[in-house]
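Progress report, Aim 2. The chain analyzed during this reporting quarter is listed below.
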Amino acid sequence: MASVLCLGLAACNNQPTQSESDRYQASRYQVQQDYGPGAPLDVSHVPDAVPKIEPRTSAGNKSPYTVLGNTYTLLPEDAPYVEEGMASWYGNKFHGHQTSNGEIYNMYGMTAAHKTLRIPTYVKVTNLDNNLSVIVRVNDRGPFHGDRIIDLSYAAARKLDYAERGTARVRVEAIDPVAWANSRDGSTEVMAQAASEPPKLRGQTLENKAPLPESVEGYQLPANTFLQAGAFSSKDSANSLREKLGGLTHYPVFVAQATKNSLYRVRIGPITDNYDLMQIRELVFRKGGVRPHVVYQ
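Predicted structure tokens for the chain:
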């Protein structure tokens, strides 16, 4: 195979009600070892993640948590972070499964798994052997084997030119999205790096382009994702809230009742983009006075 198998990959895709350890050992993965495409793919058209100011929720941010007998504590909110160490990557074994914050992992996006950074965190990752850099969004937990400090998506590892070797020595630097936003009209080093044209790597051809995800930042959610804004014994109360929230979003707002005698639940969705979900949740809280939570219908 053109792509070597990666060892010690992130095993961090989770169901929301399970513990981190249970999720890591979940049997739903159908393959024993991870693998990439059958041949190297051109990822030069895949842009880096663009740092955004995002609300952080409890999704993926349990602290402390335990995996394989080791306990990890998340770093303080927005703490400065720079670390050098080994990076690996993860691919088809986790492609299409949920990450630690409930998003869908796409190995052609620009995302990463980290053990202690808050989710989401944007980081700049530099391959210390060739000085190539990428910007990725951390939305997963791992890697939990060996001395690896970060697991990148296949596309990110390919852009750093180590996908075929499996690992690389890297520097990982957290990006402050506020400073990033303030620099958008400037010419700082990190902006210049993000705007630079990625070099052509060996094996990259126009005939073998990697598929481009709808969101390189990894915002995709399962198709059955909804926000539940309230549950009422009174249908009139549920309809009142539905009408109140209906003008706040273009997503459908409706009342659901599972059985004849069950509660009337006010739900929004389905929502397929986690960035939309986070924005809607904050908007509904500010304008509607309720704090919705994620449900899978």
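Residues 112 and 135 are 10 Å apart (CA to CA). The first strand starts at residue 65 and ends at 67. These observations will guide the mutagenesis work planned for the next reporting period.
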